[in-house]
Design goal:
- It contains ten helices and six strands; from the N terminus they run βαβαβαβαβαβααααα.
- By secondary structure, the protein is of the alpha/beta class.
- The chain has a six-stranded parallel sheet with strand order 2-1-3-4-5-6, sandwiched between helices.
- Strand 4, helix 4 and strand 5 form a beta-alpha-beta unit.
- The relative contact order is 0.10.
Length: 216
């Protein structure tokens, strides 16, 4: 049986939320569990409802999407955030990605594209909509060459788990923070040393800390 992805949306346009609600209702593995209409409520929703994926409008009343994104990453790090926007805004795209968004979609995108981005976010993968991806690559590329995440040989989920392990959390604590089962966390941890080319978990932790992970 396919695991259902719990989705929430924060957007100040009621008609857009209604459209997303109808679209998600037609997709078997996506379930809309909560809605918010401003940035303050978006943070509250993320903490109290802990959806798998939050669709977050970049411009909202009371608190901007970028500001809400930072607060959510601090208070509910297990929530995957996909940013929504109606306009091409390079500065906002760059800011959202640097704050930890794992997806970015223009509001006029095809529904199938939004579904793909949500599913990728739930898997811990970054996927940008077709209208965003080319600019995002250029925006995140420093003068010295293309941007690469710490320990790029790891998958995003592996990097998150190792980050928390290096910060001193045990598998049970990591599972709580990322809304995973302890078994899943242990399975992820078991494969990390081989991906990093080391023999033990302690060596993987040293590699992680040297790369800047594990700082909480």
């Amino acid at each position: 049986m396919t695991e259902v992805i719990r989705v929430a949306i924060a957007d100040d346009h009621a008609l857009f939320r209604q459209g997303v609600r109808a679209m998600l209702a037609a997709v078997a593995d996506l379930d809309l569990v909560a809605e918010a209409e401003d940035g303050e409520d978006a943070v509250r929703l993320a903490v109290t409802e802990a959806p798998d994926v939050l669709l977050l409008d970049i411009r909202m009343p009371r608190r901007s999407g970028i500001d809400a994104l930072g607060a959510i990453r601090a208070r509910a790090p297990g929530v995957r955030i996909v940013m929504l926007t109606m306009v091409d805004d390079d500065e906002a795209v760059a800011a959202a990605l640097r704050e930890g968004a794992v997806g970015f979609v223009l509001k006029g995108a095809d529904p199938d594209e939004l579904v793909r981005v949500v599913r990728a976010a739930a898997r811990g993968e970054m996927l940008l909509g077709a209208g965003i991806a080319p600019r995002a690559v250029a925006l995140l590329q420093p003068a010295g060459g293309p941007w690469r995440p710490p320990l790029p040989e790891l998958r995003e989920r592996e990097r998150e788990v190792l980050d928390l392990l290096a910060a001193g959390h045990d598998p049970a604590g990591i599972a709580r923070r990322l809304h995973l089962s302890v078994k899943t966390v242990r399975n992820v941890l078991a494969g990390i040393p081989a991906r990093l080319g080391v023999s033990t978990r302690d060596e993987a932790i040293r590699r992680a800390r040297a790369a800047g992970l594990g700082r909480g």
